[in-house]
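Fig. S4 source data, part A: sequence.
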Amino acid sequence: MFSKIKELSKDTAVYGISTIIGRFLGFLLVPYYTNLIAAADFGIYSNIYAYLAFLNIVYIYGMDAAFMKYASVDKSNLKKIFSTSYLTMGLTSVLFTLLLYLVRNPIIDLTQLGEAHAQIYYYVLAILFLDSLSIVPFAHLRLARKTKKFAFIKITNIIINLLLNIYLISFKHYGIEGIFIANAAASLFSLLALFPDIIKHIELRINIPYLKQILKFGIPYLPASMAAMIVQVIDRPLVLAMKGKAVLGIYSANYKLGIFMMLFVSMFQYAWQPFFLNNANDKNAKNIFSKVLTLFLTVAAILWVFVSLYIDDFARIELLHGRFLVGKAYWAGVYIVPIILLAYVFHGMYVNFQAGIYIEEKTKYFPYITFTGALVNIVINVIFIPVWGIFGAAVATLASYITMAGISFYFSHKYYPVDYEYGKVLKILGLLIFGITAYYLLYVTEQLTFPNKSFLLLIFISGMFLLRIIKISDFKSTLKMLTGK
């Protein structure tokens, strides 16, 4: 069992390094944007990326997950499965892009781009098209455990994006339009870097029997993924509609400070899906999956308390005279970060519980899970944004992920029951509830001082040991597992 978890740990580490480096380089743009771009323009940028993320799901329609599913169980026909998936996505991407071009005027009006930023729409179409052509090749790299190549392309993509952002905004004065040009260029690089793998595995023929299987498995992902994306991005247009561009800019900038937990969950997700697919038939699979959830939550809880308590100090770090890690105009929204971080913890649990649904091919339940989460998100946003502002939007995100994690656990346990370490899981969740309650009590009473935060940190970490969530022996066994000694 430990050898399997060690395998997952290594893949998570490699994906994590690429994700952390890549996303951190992207995160460097947050101080850049918040110090140079007005909150209203930042709001426009955030709103467009919300729509872009949603449309990206339409372009993919579950094809990456379907490819990984069938390529993992029928490796002898990898070329047929790869070609069928890739060519089908290529054809549909052309159709989607043409359709979006034809209806450009109403969408430009809907997104409030205006004449000054109308050109951004065409860069968005380019990004969507180029990224869709890279999805299946990236999925193949993950399945084949070509982690180094995957990491190289991802990191280089972000570096290109970062450098072009700086050049186009600071030197060419393109404003937020430069953000989308840089993204399109970086997406083109990724596709070109993947081209040798595409040529190696492509056959210019769509296999109809495989296409039927792939679509049967993948199509349920379209409504499910669309609903999941609603959970992630619907708050942007709602905050824009109810509170305006400037408030949306403040909300979006502070939402991005949740990057530290998002990175951890993302790198786990990249490694987790191919891991549980490849090990589903192992006799100890369920024991391994149980231990993985406990380890994930333990690390996530420790990360949550550190980042939550000190994120405001981090945001106020002065980089240059009058230039801070997060622009001064955006500090008013830092208090939402602990909620966003906790939402990502439950997102990680949702990702973990997906294993049983994948393995038993019960993907038909994903729409129920994600649409319920989306409904919860929309209702809470509509009710609480007018009352609580951006805090209400953050709470809506947390509530939706708790809902999705709970429902996915129900369906996963129904068809693929895993005996999780419930005692430890409940203790960790109890500590998180205590931590976030104590944080906001200190916040509302204006007692969130450095000494009080450090005392709360001490209580939280001590609780991890006193409740025997972490034991000294765990450090020794983990070290032994990772070093192989």
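Fig. S4 source data, part B ends here. Strands lie at 318-320, 323-324.
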